[in-house]
Amino acid sequence: MNNEKGFITLTLLMVVAVISIVAVYLLGSLELNSIVNNAAEDSLQAYYSAESKLYLLINMDEYYYNQLLPRIKRYIKYGRITPDYDNKIILDEKDLIEDDKYNIVNLNFLIDENNRRVLEVKIDSSRRIISKQLIAELYLINEIFELGMPVVSHDTLTQDQRFEFDNYMEYLEREIYTAELDEGITGVYGSDYDEIDIVGEGNSLRVDYYRSGLSNPIKEEIIINNKIFLLGKNNKNCDIKVNFVSGFDRISLEGILYVEGGLYIYDDFNFKGIIIVNGELNIYPGANVNINGILLTRESIEQLGDDVDPVINYDFLEVKKYGACLPKFIDIRVKKIISN
Fold first, then answer.
1. How far is the C-alpha of 16 from the C-alpha of 242, rounded, in Å?
2. 58-85 pLDDT, tens per residue?
3. Among 71, 114, 179, 217, which is most exposed with the fewest C-beta within 10 angstroms?
4. CB neighbour class for 305 (10 Å; exposed up to 12, middle 13-18, buried from 19)
């Protein structure tokens, strides 16, 4: 009898011990799972916090227009942001997600393997004891201007590129303006007129503005420098016609020419910068035309004819001087995002 009681007691103790071990194991597992789950949640929150800072940088006016965009413009134009700016942008703590103690975004401008300008953004973030670093690479410039092509038209593009090109040309029709020009660039506004003659006169240009039905210009303007932003938009009455006539001297210009109707070059013509013909391009036989920069045209360059042979060279140095004056020349798109 005593032996049976001893056996029962021993068995009971063993059962209790096993139950205790299992209970301790289960409690430990639950605690470990809780720690792992909390760590995973904190890691995810830290990533979202870093991602939100990237969103602020690109989409919030306070950071984009006041801090990021001026740095991008300076880098594109001069190849550096110093001495005007440093490579850090400080975010206001009120814009951070709760528990995130990092408010500095680090910038690094570089050129990638495809010769495209890229902004590398390094963003640190935290959630309780978990820290994350997000590294984003952003394309800065509309791909159309970094293809390395002297002439961008349907003939020179792939099917996908044509879609982007057409969208951009249509966007320019709606959005192009000359409100913000760099110092030294003269705006020539032709949207209220039917025809413009730009005539070379020694070291200056004479711009004659016409309306249909009138043989004499209704306005005349003298431009003494050779840097211009010509905005030739069609009006409700007709498509605009822009004529370059050198007279006795070759016309030499820099800047941006944007024409929606017809661009006509009658005589010798040198140009550095960006020409966008959202209409018809005509170069008359015998005209010696040299363009360094880029030409965007909806028409095939071949339609100019066999007796017209303009010399057009892609030159990014000339493109970047004036590109920031165009809407969506700076066109930020994500190349890749890495999280550590």
1. 98
2. 999 999 999 999 999 999 999 999 888 9
3. 179
4. exposed
Among 88, 107, 141, give the residue marking a domain's end: 141
Residues of the chain with pLDDT under 70: 1-13, 15-18, 20-44, 46, 179, 247-248
At residue 167, the pLDDT reads: 95
Which tens digit of pLDDT belongs to each residue from 23-45?
666 565 555 454 444 445 656 67
Are 264 and 313 in the same domain? yes
What is the domain extent for residue 244?
A: 145-325
Q: What is the largest CA-CA distance in the chain?
A: 133
d(C-alpha 11, C-alpha 5), whole Å:
10
Distance (Å, whole) CA 122 – CA 50: 9
> Which tokens sit at 323?
């590109």
**C-alpha distances in angstroms, 13 versus 22, 24, 91?**
14, 16, 63
pLDDT at 30: 54
Has residue 40 been placed in a domain? yes
b/e map 30-45, b = 16+ CB within 10 Å: eeeeeeeeeeeebeeb
Q: Is there a domain that residue 338 lies in?
A: no
Residues 9, 156, single domain; the answer is no
Q: Please enumerate in sequence order all residues whose Cβ is within 8 A of that of 173, keeping only pairs 6 or more positions apart, or say none.
A: 233, 260, 278
pLDDT, residue 35, reads 45
What is d(CA 277, CA 323) in angstroms, rounded to the nearest whole number?
Answer: 15
Single-letter code of the amino acid located at 116: R
In SS3 terms, 39-80 reads as HHHHHHHHHHHHHHHHHHHHHCHHHHHHHHHHHHHHHHHHCC
Quote the number of domains for the chain: 2
Query: Contact at 8 Å (CB) between 148 and 61?
Result: no
> Cα–Cα distances in Å, from 28 out to 15, 17, 37, 130?
20, 16, 14, 22
User: Is the sign of the CA dihedral 324, 326, 327, 331 positive or negative?
Assistant: negative
Whether residue 227 is contained in a domain is answered as yes
